[in-house]
């Protein structure tokens, strides 16, 4: 998958705002041993890559006739509207060993009828080359009962993918529902203690 990019000639807040109004996103592309490049990419093309490949997408960026393979390092997006403020890309080569956070996805969660499925880790860290980065890890919780636990070591690592997260880290467990305390009524309230000497004072 290729994404066309152009060199960014002007920087600053006003230039970034103008670029976004034109449907482009300001980009910083980092390369080992080289200066960071300031680029502009098309917003729709970047959104398509995210939808198809996810946040760990590896793709090619075409800049002035040159092609560079990149990985999404970070992006900043508006919380209340569909707008990207900026994107950071990391230039990579085919044999680079990368450490990447991979999402954990639960499967058959609805089959657990007793207890609550508790996902302890939403992502795990792995090390691999760009071509072997998994899109996600599926964890099947079918048949799990209260007290059952699955660990990071239970994940099936594809070939050429190494788990970096501690293998003994709890990944998902089934826990008992928390019982809410019963509301007390006026009848259950403790009676106020009688004040010693009060009756004697009133009987006089």
TrEMBL record:
Any single GO CC term annotated in Swiss-Prot or TrEMBL for this entry: cytosolic large ribosomal subunit
Species whose genome carries this gene: Globicatella sulfidifaciens DSM 15739
Keyword Ribosomal protein: yes
Homology family: Belongs to the bacterial ribosomal protein bL25 family. CTC subfamily.
Keywords: Ribonucleoprotein, Ribosomal protein, RNA-binding, rRNA-binding
Subunit and interaction comment: Part of the 50S ribosomal subunit; part of the 5S rRNA/L5/L18/L25 subcomplex. Contacts the 5S rRNA. Binds to the 5S rRNA independently of L5 and L18.
Biological process terms in GO annotation: translation
Biased composition (Acidic residues): 179-192
Protein name per the record: Large ribosomal subunit protein bL25
Record's function text: This is one of the proteins that binds to the 5S RNA in the ribosome where it forms part of the central protuberance.
PANTHER family for this protein: RIBOSOMAL PROTEIN L25/GLN-TRNA SYNTHETASE, ANTI-CODON-BINDING DOMAIN-CONTAINING PROTEIN, RIBOSOMAL PROTEIN L25_GLN-TRNA SYNTHETASE, ANTI-CODON-BINDING DOMAIN-CONTAINING PROTEIN
Positions of the Large ribosomal subunit protein bL25 L25 domain: 3-89
InterPro entries in alphabetical order: Rbsml_bL25/Gln-tRNA_synth_N, Ribosomal_bL25/Gln-tRNA_synth, Ribosomal_bL25_b-dom, Ribosomal_bL25_C, Ribosomal_bL25_long, Ribosomal_L25_dom, Ribosomal_uL5_bac-type
Domain Large ribosomal subunit protein bL25 beta: 97-177
Residue segments, region Disordered: 1-22, 174-204
Tree of life domain: Bacteria
UniProt keyword DNA repair, yes or no: no
Any matching Pfam family: Ribosomal_TL5_C
Gene Ontology MF terms: 5S rRNA binding; structural constituent of ribosome
